[in-house]
Amino acid sequence: MASALTIKAALRWPVRILIIWLMLVSQVSLSADMAKVVVMTSYPQEVVSQFEAAFEKQYPQYKLEVLWRQSRDAMAYFKESGQPVDVYWTPAQRNFAQLEKMQAFQPLNLDLDGLPAEVNGFALREGNHIATEIAGYGIVSNPQALTNAGLTIPRNWTDLSHPALKGKIALPVPSKVGYAPLLIDILLQGYGWQAGWNLLQAIAANAELVTSGATFVSDDVASGRLLAGLTIDFLTASAIANGAPLQFVYPELTGYSPAHLAIMKNTGNLEGARAFSKFVLSEQGQRLLFHPDIRKLPVRPSVYANKPAAYFNPFEDNPSFVYDTRRGFARQDITNALFDAIITLNLASLQKAVSAIQDASNQSGPDASEVVKATQLLHSLPIDEAGAEAIRTLNPAEVTRWQRIMHDRYEEAAKIASPH
Questions:
Q1: CB count, 10 Å around CB of 237?
Q2: Which CATH number fits domain 29-134+258-306: 3.40.190.10, 3.40.190.80, 1.20.1300.10, 1.10.10.10?
C-alpha cells in the first residue's frame, strides 16, 4: 500500500514541475510585453504609489520603474551616469532650470489644452518642462494652544509680528531650509523691499529659527511648544492627515512653488514617457492630488469642481500681487545672505532692540523721539534693493560686513530706546 502511494506521488511531481514551469514562462512573457518607464523623482512613497498603481491600470503595457533621488543627487546622476531616465518628475525648480540650459529635455509634444501657463506670476511651464502640481505658502498654527493663550489664529503674515506671540513663532532660515528662499522673497516682493525686511525683522523678534528639518515647524507647533510658523502646505497637510492638531491658512498675499515634469532627451522609451506625462497631467492624474496622503494643489483648474470640502483653489482669485519668478531666482543667493546678516547671525541683538523699542513705545508712546529714532536705526538696511540686485558674485567678506553693520545698529537702537 505504501509502495503504491509512493509511486503515485512520484508520478504527480512531473506535472507539478510542468505547471510551475508554465507559470514562470507566462510571467517572463508578460514582463517582456510590458515596456519599462523609468521615472526619477524625490516624491515620497505615499505619493508615487498612488500614481504608479493608477498609471499601470490605465496603461497596462507599461511598468513604472522609480529612481528616488534628492535634488543634488539627481543632478550628479544626470551628469555622471550613462543610464537613461525617461521622465524627471520632482519639486526642484532650480534643477529644471539648469537642465534646460543643458538641453537635457525632449519637447513634450503633449496636448496642453486646459492647462494655464501661470498662476499669479508663477510660471507653470517654461521651455520643455511643465508643472504638475503646486504647493502654497502660508501659516500653520495650533488653534487650541492659541485659544488657551487667549490669542486668535494668525491669518496674515503681519499677524505674526504681534508682541503677544513673542518666542512662539517658527521661522525657517532660507539658506538652510529648501522651501524658504521663495517664501522670504514673496514677502519682499509683496510688501516691497523695505517694508518686507521690516516685517521679517518683526516676525524674527517673536521667533525661533528653523535651520534644518523643515518638518520641525509642524512638529513644534503641533506639540504646542510654538503657536504658529511659516511653512509650505504639503508638510502641514501630511501632519494633519496623521492627526496633528493643526490648521493651515493661506494669507491673502501668498505664492506657490511648482513641481515639474520633463521628458529626458536620452529616454529609452519615448512613447512610454509621453504616456506617463499625459497621465499625470490628465483629469484622472490631477484628481489623485486630492488624496488624503498627498493633498497637493492641481494645475488643471477644471478638477477643482470636485475638490474636497474647504480645499484651497489658487485659480479662484486674482490678487493684485503678481510674483516675478525670474527676479526672485536671480537674487536668491543675495537675499539668503542678507537674511543671515540681518536676522540669523544677529537674532539676539535684533530681539533685544525690538524689545527695548516696544517697552519705550508702551511707556512714552509710539511717537516719542527715542522710539522713532531707534526704529529708524533698526530698519536701516546695509544695502538697498538696487544695490543687492546689482551684485553678480557674492563676497563672503561683504556678508560679514553687513552682519557687523546690523549688529552695531541693533545695539545702538537698544541704547537709544532704553537710555537708562
A1: 21
A2: 3.40.190.10
Distance in angstroms (rounded) separating the CA atoms of residues 246 and 271? 43
Q: Which of 53, 66, 64, 61 is nearest to 30 (CA)?
A: 61
Give the sign of the dihedral formed by CA 400, CA 405, CA 407, CA 408.
positive
The position carrying cell 536701516 is 380
Give me the pLDDT at residue 14, please.
59
Tens of pLDDT, residues 73-105:
999 999 888 789 999 999 988 899 999 999 999
Q: What is the pTM of this model?
A: 0.85
The pLDDT assigned to 24 comes to: 56
CATH topology of domain 136-255+322-417: D-Maltodextrin-Binding Protein; domain 2 (3.40.190)
Supply the pLDDT for residue 71: 87
Q: Is the dihedral of CA 184, 190, 192, 198 positive or negative?
A: negative
User: Any idea which residue has 514677502 for its cell?
Assistant: 187
